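Onboarding guide, step 5: your first structure request.
Type a short instruction followed by the sequence, for example:

Predict the 3D structure of this protein.
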Amino acid sequence: MRWTFLTGLALAASLAVGSANASEDRLDSALGTMKVIGEPLLLEDGRHAGCQYTFVVLTRDRVYRHGQYLRIAGSVSVIRTSDFVDSPAQHAVNTMLKLVVNEVAISSDGRLNLTPSAPSRAYLLGENMQSHMDRLYKPRNTETPGSVTLMLDADPTMKILKEAAKSSHKIAVAFNQRGGNKDITIPIELDVTDFGLNGERTRSDEAERNFARCMGSVFRDIPSARMAE
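The system replies with structure tokens like these:
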């Protein structure tokens, strides 16, 4: 998506300095959630098939790489299953997680280099440690280098999203690297709407309001998908 690309440009611009050490300082100031958007999920014919949060996060991998920087772009989507399969359960709801993981390396002249590194598993986590860990579906690689996509059960995804909307304003994703059995967990702050060149964040409830508005429209006939009860 274009906003993901622009976030990458902003990060690269913030590293345009004279030494690798200075670049690492700038990267450290950028650690965390860089941007979140709440938006409709559109089919090719323009219909709204669901709603999603899309996000970009910068973290350090202390599980597999001794602190290597990673940039994670992705989305958590809530989907009307009937828009994809012919099923008697016309009001079925499903959820999907997509992650695009890149190693971030800094050259000696401060340039930013990204290397795709797709996980082989991933799942969603809530504030109260609700997760899909006991019901992991087989992930699918997509055409995007470094990416993985997998379906999630609507329960506990909807509980996690509702809890975030009511109080925590955070969700988290966990994923592995190199086929390992340990997971990297990254928090996603849903109120971060922009990232500045010096690491400052712009915060508002815009993404959450847009997501809730979309859910109210697309899933107005499905009580289980309502964000406010």
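Each response can be followed by summary notes, for example: The CA atoms of residues 3 and 35 lie 9 Å apart.
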